[in-house]
Design brief:
Length: 179
C-alpha cells in the first residue's frame, strides 16, 4: 500500500487511507492514450494540406507554361504576317528571336516562382509540424502533471500523518510515546 511505502503504520495508515484520494488513472490513461491518435490525425491533415499546395503549384505552373506556349505561337504568327509570309525575312527573324528571348525570360520567371512556391510549402509544412510537436508536448505535460500533482498530494499527506501521534491525537513527530 502507499501508506506502508511512506512509512505509515497502524492508526496513521488508517487515517491516511481515509483522507488519500485515489489516483485518477482513467483520466491519466485517456490523456496519454489520446496523444498518438491526435499526432496521426494532425500529421495526416498537414500532409493533405501540403498535397493540396503542391497540386495548386503544379497546376499554376502548367497553366502559365501553356499560356507562354500560346504567346510564343501568336508571336510567331504575327511576325510572319508582318513580314508578308517570307520566312527568311530579317524582320521576321528578328521578331522571332525577340519572342524567343522574351519567352525564355518568362520561363525563367515561372520556374523561379514555382521553386519559391515549393520552398514556401515546405516551410509551411515544417512550421505546422513544429507547432504540432509543441501541442503534443503540452498534452504530455498535462498528463504527467496530473501524475506529479497526485504524487505531491500523497507525499504531503503522508508527511502530515507521519507527524501525527495516534495515541495522544496530537502532532509531535514521535510515535507511540505518551507524555
Amino acid at each position: 500500500s502507499i501508506a506502508s511505502k511512506l512509512g505509515l503504520e497502524g492508526e496513521q495508515a488508517k487515517m491516511f487511507g481515509r483522507f488519500a484520494r485515489p489516483f485518477q488513472q482513467d483520466r491519466f490513461l485517456k490523456l496519454v492514450g489520446s496523444i498518438d491518435p491526435y499526432r496521426k490525425e494532425q500529421t495526416g491533415f498537414l500532409g493533405r494540406q501540403k498535397d493540396i499546395g503542391l497540386e495548386a503549384a503544379r497546376s499554376g505552373l502548367s497553366q502559365n507554361l501553356s499560356g507562354l506556349r500560346q504567346s510564343l505561337q501568336l508571336g510567331g504568327m504575327q511576325a510572319a504576317e508582318r513580314s508578308g509570309g517570307f520566312a527568311g525575312g530579317g524582320a521576321q527573324q528578328s521578331a522571332l528571336q525577340l519572342a524567343r528571348e522574351l519567352a525564355g525570360q518568362r520561363y525563367g520567371d515561372l520556374t523561379g516562382q514555382y521553386q519559391t512556391r515549393l520552398t514556401d510549402i515546405g516551410l509551411t509544412q515544417d512550421r505546422g509540424l513544429s507547432a504540432l510537436d509543441e501541442k503534443i508536448e503540452a498534452r504530455k505535460g498535462q498528463a504527467y502533471g496530473l501524475l506529479g500533482d497526485y504524487m505531491d498530494r500523497v507525499l504531503t499527506l503522508g508527511q502530515q500523518f507521519l507527524q501525527y501521534d495516534p495515541i495522544s491525537g496530537g502532532h509531535g513527530g514521535t510515535q507511540g510515546t505518551t507524555p
